[in-house]
Design brief:
Layout: E1 6-13, E2 20-36, E3 39-54, E4 56-67, E5 73-85, E6 91-101
C-alpha cells in the first residue's frame, strides 16, 4: 500500500432516535521505525478521522502504529469529543485524549 492511500468507514450504534452514525476516512501514512524495549520495530502508521452524528455528535481521531512483522498494535494516540443532549436542553460533553505505547515485545505471564 502506498503512503496516502485512503479508505472510508461507517458504522451505526443504537436504535431509533438515539442511534449514532459515524463516518470517516482512514489514511495510510507510511512506514516508520519505533523503539520498543530497545529494539527498532518497522511499523505501518495509519490515521482514522471520524465524525459522529445523530444521538451523539462530534469528531474523533485515532492513530495506530502496527508492527509489520506481527500486525499487532505497537502504539496508539487518540482524541474524541462527543456531545449528547441531556435533560432540560442541557448538552453533555465528553472528551477523551490518550496515548499508549508498548514497552516490550515479550509477553508476560
Amino acid at each position: 500500500m502506498a503512503p496516502g492511500t485512503t479508505w472510508s468507514q461507517s458504522c451505526t450504534s443504537g436504535q431509533g432516535s438515539g442511534a449514532s452514525h459515524q463516518t470517516g476516512r482512514a489514511t495510510y501514512l507510511g512506514q516508520v521505525q519505533l523503539q520498543v524495549g530497545g529494539r527498532s520495530v518497522t511499523c505501518a502508521h495509519v490515521r482514522w478521522t471520524r465524525t459522529t452524528s445523530g444521538g451523539q455528535t462530534g469528531p474523533s481521531s485515532d492513530e495506530y502504529w502496527f508492527d509489520l512483522g506481527t500486525y499487532l498494535p505497537v502504539q496508539r494516540v487518540w482524541s474524541l469529543t462527543q456531545h449528547t443532549a441531556g435533560p432540560g436542553g442541557v448538552t453533555v460533553t465528553y472528551e477523551e485524549h490518550g496515548r499508549w505505547q508498548l514497552t516490550s515485545l515479550q509477553p508476560r505471564s
